[in-house]
Amino acid sequence: MRPPEHTPPPTEPPRWLWQRARQVVVAVIGLTVLAVGLALLVLPGPGILIIVAGLSILAIEYAWARNLLKKARARVATLTRRREPR
Length: 86
Hints:
This protein is mainly alpha-helical. The protein has a domain at 46-79. The chain has helices spanning 15-42, 47-58, 63-80. Helix 1 (15-42) runs antiparallel to helix 2 (47-58) and helix 2 (47-58) packs antiparallel against helix 3 (63-80). It starts with 14 loop residues before the first helix and ends in a 6-residue tail after the last helix. The mean pLDDT is 86.
């Protein structure tokens, strides 16, 4: 009679693997939305809004996208600010 085989308990993947997977998913979704927004600049559709959405998604994980989004928001704020009448 053989003793029962010991199977080790299932282990969770390491934390770095989850973080890397999240980065990849955010990058793929963000770049896809950004590419659609760029295409909509020449096609009929709300291209600039889609580009902002793509940058917002990318800003979750990437500092360069966060900085670009801040610059874009500041530019929009200066363009939409009301000018005082003379």
